[in-house]
Amino acid sequence: MSLKIGIAGPVGSGKTSLIEALTNMLKNEYKIGIVTNDIYTTEDANYLKRTLDLPDEQIIGVETGGCPHTAIRDDISMNQKAVIELEEKFDSDIVFVESGGDNLSATFSYELIDYYLYVIDVAQGADIPRKKGAGLLFSDLLIVNKTDLAPYVGVEIESMKNDVKENRKNKPYVFVSNKDESTLNEVKDWILALV
Ligand SMILES: Nc1nc2c(ncn2[C@@H]2O[C@H](COP(=O)(O)OP(=O)(O)O)[C@@H](O)[C@H]2O)c(=O)[nH]1
Ligand SMILES: [Mg+2]
C-alpha cells in the first residue's frame, strides 16, 4: 500500500514543478510513482520523464479526454488503474496524482487518494483566496506558490496571508517558491508525517 497524494489547482500554478521538486527530495528514501492527468496529451508525464532521474515506467500519463474534474472525482477508473499498476509493479511508497488544470472547483475522490494538496500561485492575483472554491477551502494542504514573483505582479504577501488564513479556517497552508528550497521542505515534512 502506498501513500497517495493528489495535487490539484489551476493550469500553470506549479503542480508539475512541485512534483518534480518533491520527487527529487524523496526519491532516495522512498519509491515514488507519479500519475499525471492532461486532457489531450501526456505533456506533464513526458516532461517529468525527461527531467527526473526516475525510471520512465514509474511515471504514467493519463489522457482524460474530457472534463479533468470527472477523472479525479466521479469516474476515477483511469486513474485508479494507473495507481494500481504503480503499486503492483514497483511497490511504490508514495504515489503523486496530478490533476489536469482546473478553474477552482476541482476536488479529488478519497477513493483515489489519501490526501490532496491544492496549488495556487501569487501571479494569478491576490484575490484568488477570496474567490474560495472547494480545493481552496477544503484541501488537506493549500499551497500558495511562486512567492518570488509577488513584487513583479503587485501582490502583497501579508495581505494575501490574511485572506488565506480567514478562508482556510483551521486547515493548514504554506506559502512557497521553487526558488527557495526551505519553503518546499515544509511540504516535504507535511508528507513525511503521513507516510
Ligand atoms: N518564478 C516561479 N516560477 C515557477 C514556480 N513554480 C513553478 N513555476 C513555473 O511556472 C510554470 C508552470 O508550472 P507547472 O509546474 O508546469 O504548472 P502546472 O500547470 O500547475 O503543472 C513553469 O514555467 C514553472 O517553471 C515558482 O515557485 N516560481
Ligand atoms: Mg502540470
Automatic annotation (TrEMBL):
It comes from Poseidonibacter ostreae. Belongs to the SIMIBI class G3E GTPase family. UreG subfamily. InterPro entries: CobW/HypB/UreG_nucleotide-bd, P-loop_NTPase, UreG. Keywords: Chaperone, GTP-binding, Nickel insertion, Nucleotide-binding. It holds the Pfam family cobW. Residues 5-174 form the CobW/HypB/UreG nucleotide-binding domain. This is Urease accessory protein UreG. One of its GO terms (molecular function) is nickel cation binding. GO terms for biological process: urea catabolic process.
